[in-house]
Amino acid sequence: MEKTWRWFGPNDKITLEMLRQIGVEGIVTALHHIPNGEIWSYDEVMKMKNFIEDHGLRWSVVESLPVSESIKYGGEDRDRLIENYKISLANLGKAGVKTICYNFMPVLDWARTDLENPNDDGTSNLYFNKAEFAYFDICILKRANASADYDEKTLARVEKMKPEMDEEAERRLVDNIIVKTQGFVNGNISESDLNPVEKFRELLKLYEGIDAGQLRENMKYFLEAIMPVCDEYDINMCVHPDDPPMPILGLPRIVTCDADIKAFLDAVPNKHNGLTFCAGSLSAGAQNDVTELARKYADRTHFVHARICRVLPDGDFKESTHLDPRLIDVVTTFETVRPGVPMRVDHAPLMLGDEKMGYNAGYSFHGRMLALGMVSGIMATVNKIKNESK
């Protein structure tokens, strides 16, 4: 697989010079300075591409060309926004950038409740505590009938938490769930928002009456509209699975499991309609066997996120080591079946001072460098075995 790295542009504290030194081959990035829904001009695309290539690397994957909320919920301006999207795709295709990672998650891109959950070795990882998330939903967001979405055990944990949740604890929870994990990726909420909770409530209202079936139809409408451009320029669209892979906040989620993946691939049976195989997102759902899913959908996978989660009691989950046996199996599958597919590690631990550097949540330097070394070792072993068996 191609060893890639998510990089957030010239202002990223991690430089392209640093990435060349640690064995990165391709860059995963986006034009983060362009607001959602606006056209990525050919000149802007080429400016980024040339900058990357001037540093001896290549722009391998766009992550992401954001799909506007109006496209997802089917707003009045979705056709205009889809036309803008098609022009941006064409400009990327003309520039030779032909792998596009995107998501179709309503409002919230990905969710964690703790961004620095301590490990026994002194490092820390991202963590999802189901009870803390329920507390945010019920007690901070105050979503109507939110309690009905949680089991009795989770609700009991929420009650037990209440005496400990002062103003600062609630602020930290809001920051972790809807600000720090969202704003740096062209998200709906940014750190400059004075009232992120109220803004978040307004975003949720946009999806009133939108169930999973309607969201699937809206995704199909979008994909069918852009496939002619993808065919013309040989562009691979690869949707990221929902993270976490379950309904949250009353919002539908439609890329959570085997049946969901099959449904969107079958709905638009074009080879350019494919999957970002994020083993981490999929493994956060106890319903998913990620090693089996990797084997099943390898031929429709255009991009791989090499990370893995460990599901804990009560529905909590935490990022696991990149040497988790399941991830070894996933990497082995793609290195064997799709050896040229771009792969990047992410959601690695904070270590060796990463926590002091102000990196985007989930995107440390030392932690990802360690993870890249681990995955590179797995790949090298797979290739040694392949070569010896010839």
Lay out the secondary structure.
Elements: E1 2-6, H1 16-21, E2 26-29, H2 42-53, E3 58-63, H3 69-73, H4 78-95, E4 99-102, E5 114-118, E6 124-128, H5 130-140, H6 152-161, H7 167-179, H8 196-205, H9 212-233, E7 236-239, H10 258-267, E8 273-278, H11 279-283, H12 290-297, E9 301-306, E10 309-311, E11 317-319, H13 325-337, E12 342-345, H14 366-388
Parallel strand pairs: 1-2, 1-12, 2-3, 3-4, 4-7, 7-8, 8-9, 9-12
Antiparallel strand pairs: 5-6, 6-11, 10-11
Helix pairs in contact: 2-4, 4-9, 5-6, 5-7, 12-13, 13-14
Q: Mind explaining what this structure looks like?
A:
This protein has 390 residues and is of the alpha/beta class. It is 43% helix and 14% strand. The chain has 14 helices and twelve strands. The strands form two sheets. Strands 1-2-3-4-7-8-9-12 form an eight-stranded parallel barrel, surrounded by four helices. Strand 7 (236-239), helix 10 (258-267) and strand 8 (273-278) form a beta-alpha-beta unit. The chain is globular, with a radius of gyration of 20 Å.
